[in-house]
Design a protein that fits this description.
It is built from 17 helices and seven strands. With about 350 residues, it is an alpha/beta fold. A five-stranded parallel beta sheet has the order 2-3-1-4-5. Strands 6-7 form a two-stranded parallel ribbon.
Length: about 350
């Protein structure tokens, strides 16, 4: 919705959309034509705005449905961090026109995520990959719009060719600079599942970046991701997509994402990486947050402690979905996700309903 005109035309030209979605494409183009003049104003403002001194970011990585949102929302309560909010992620090139477009978003966007009831809002933390998809055609989240091309998109945006690496890093650094300068914060906190696969590229640009990897039992991750994508895709797809292929898409993304992560994980300096399971984090979130602050030598944990507690208390009524799975599918997941089961030290969960 908030893409630049050039980026939108480039993406639509590269990937084929189904004719039934022509009206969606037309309406999106209409919105982009309306916001384009304001993007020019945005560029001028950023050109003259004083640059904020910047530290390398903190990246929260891990597959969707692994607890990344809860962790991100919690850490963003620390006022020392800058972050992408929902408005910024959708209108990254219209940050200073927010007084016009935020109202539209407040009226049109849902109050919570349909899949799990997590609260949504224009000023709440959001994934920066949405911003990237509105800024460059090298964004992994293009597969939400063009699911039939999910393998091609994965390999072209997460396993970058040599000629695309500098371009991607330049674009990514640009949007992070925008948030740092807009918020006036030296350090930006970023939650992006796709970055789980991009460790080697991120370290080229941000050698002293900190990484927080949160993971969860692969069976529950698969089931929760399938449910999430199954509910999300109809509202964003620009292609006719056979729902039977969604199983393959989820398995492929997970398997390849962790193959890439474990291939390059050891490139991260040990003092710049912390890993923990969602199950432990959910039991004692504040203890885990304190470990993060101690490991990375971050300041002001005690000053933020009360606001952390308040947010944790507000989430106590949140219920985790109960899942069931077919025996054949479970066997496939156990085989395809073998590396993650071993690395993360998980077994088939006992509280799983198997048909």
């Amino acid at each position: 919705m908030g893409s630049t005109l050039g980026n939108f035309i480039g993406i639509i030209s590269k990937y084929k959309f189904s004719s039934v979605y022509l009206i969606n494409v037309f309406l999106t183009l209409l919105v982009i034509l309306i916001i384009t003049p304001f993007q020019v104003i945005d560029k001028i403002i950023f050109l003259f705005k004083k640059r904020t001194k910047k530290k390398d970011p903190i990246f929260i990585v891990g597959h969707w449905r692994s607890g990344t949102t809860f962790l991100h929302n919690l850490l963003c309560k620390d006022k020392n961090f800058g972050f992408f909010n929902t408005y910024n992620s959708l209108f990254i090139s219209n940050i200073y026109s927010s007084f016009l477009f935020k109202t539209l978003m407040r009226v049109t966007m849902p109050k919570s995520r349909p899949s799990d009831g997590v609260k949504l809002g224009v000023d709440l933390p959001q994934e920066d990959e949405f911003a990237l998809s509105n800024y460059t055609n090298l964004s992994h989240y293009l597969f939400f719009f063009f699911p039939n091309n999910y393998k091609e998109i994965y390999n072209s945006t997460l396993r970058l060719e040599e000629k695309d690496q500098k371009k991607w890093l330049r674009h990514y650094n640009n949007i992070i600079d925008r948030i740092s300068n807009y918020t006036g914060k030296e350090r930006v906190l970023i939650k992006n599942p796709s970055n789980t696969s991009r460790i080697k590229y991120l370290l080229k640009q941000y050698p002293n970046a900190k990484f927080i990897h949160i993971y969860r039992n692969p069976v529950f991750v698969y089931l929760s991701t399938y449910k999430f994508f199954n509910e999300l895709f109809p509202s964003v797809n620009l292609q006719k997509f056979d729902r039977d292929k969604l199983v393959e898409l989820v398995i492929y993304n997970y398997k390849e994402m962790y193959a890439d992560y474990y291939k390059y994980k050891d490139c991260i300096p040990k003092n710049n990486l912390i890993e923990f399971g969602f199950e432990d984090f959910r039991k004692k979130p504040l203890d885990q947050i304190e470990k993060i602050y101690n490991k990375f030598k971050l300041e002001d944990f005690e000053l933020s402690k009360n606001v952390f507690k308040k947010y944790i208390d507000s989430q106590k009524d949140h219920k985790v979905n109960v899942y069931k799975i077919k025996k054949e599918l479970l066997k496939t997941i156990k085989n395809e996700f073998k590396q993650s089961f071993e690395k993360m030290n998980y077994k088939i969960p006992k509280n799983l309903k198997i048909n």
